Write the structure tokens for this entry.
Amino acid sequence: MAQKPIDTPLSAPPNSAEQAKLLGTSYRSTFIAAMFLVCLFNFGDRSVFLVLGQTLKREFQLSDLQWGLLSGPAFGALYAIAGIPLGRLAEHTSRVRIIAACTGIWSLMTVSCGLATGFFTLMLARFGVGIGEAGFTAPVNSLVGDKFPKQRRASTVSLIMLGTPAGLLTGSLVGGWAAAEWGWQAAFFAMGIPGLFVALLVFLLLREPDRGLVDGTAKPTSPPPNFGAFLKEMWRKKALFFVIIGGGMVGLASTSVSNFMPIFLQRVHEMDVRQASQFYGPISAGSLAIALVVGSFGADWLASRGDARWPAWIAAIGLALAPIIYWFALTTPSIAIATTLLIFAGAMMMMFYGPTSGMIQNMLEPRMRATGAAMFTMLNTFCGSVLAPPLVGLGSDLLAARAFRGDFGEQCPKGLAPEGATPDIVQACAAASATGVQQALMIAVCATFLACISFLLATLTLRQSQYEAKPTPQTSA
């Protein structure tokens, strides 16, 4: 017996028997599982780099500002720049092939990070990782919009994005273990090489659906709307504008926390790289898993009960609470209390992600969805990876210098006591560096207050901004 598609509108006649299979339970499950794996290595590759932060700082004698540049703009600048062109490409060509190719590129460049010999070669490798990873979010969100009805899009995105906490946990634990056993280079190899096989898996298993397949729209014969048309639509729908702006601003806080958390744990709680990775992984994975499940499934469930504003309200509530919880988490001397609070604070901050992805898809027509996701990702990455890490790194250096009694730059070059320094100087440098990163993060998380306001503004017109599909006309026999 043929498999019956689930959650497919009765007005959605499949364009072919092959396309009909793409709406079946089996294929949808395969799609989610494959995208979960891609997402896992997407964030696993990032996580292994962050866990090695203090190790790479010592290896290449990097300041906090230089580390901020490597963990931020070196990755985020090209990620942000490439995001829109790749999003536009996804409106015109196979999104499955884009995801497969980009997964292969970023995995290869992660391996290249393990071959770096200094600051500049590591930066070049990070450029490559950024270009590759820019080709994931927009195409996958667009594919979700074509395969799943609007009442399931936020929750479907959340299932895929559960690869984020899984990747952060895998990258941190595997990276910390490999670095401790065989050196930091092995950590990059351990995460980069398997990603090449995942890219091949995507290419072989997945098929490209027609645009608007699940909405029941006719197969388009005209070119997709251009980028100017998308910008006009974003400006016309103020809710869409504020959702994308708010989602972008969260990056200022979220990337600051993720990029500097391993360093915070090593400095403030005096951990080595393996210990920091063992805490960083569960903290990041736990907070993201809670946020994606509660935020996304909660948003879909509440919105399905009649009010489309619930996704924005959920995002705003979490973003308002997150900084307050972070302030307690970053200042408590107890690692047990800090771990619990960091998980809770991270969950509140990241509650916005699934609802934001779902709202963008639900407000745009099928051939604008990849561009909408790309715009959100570009702004989030620009704020988070281009602006936040160097600002937090610079702030950490300045605040450390302020906390140090003496000439911090001379007595603690790059934030570290020089060889042969007295125990008092070693301790003073370590204490000042810990204070610097702690206070810099306490300032950075306040960016979520601004994002909260943006999501609240979106609620004013969100119900009127929903996209309504025009079903394919039925022909009588």
Observations:
- Residues 1-14 have pLDDT under 50 and may be disordered.
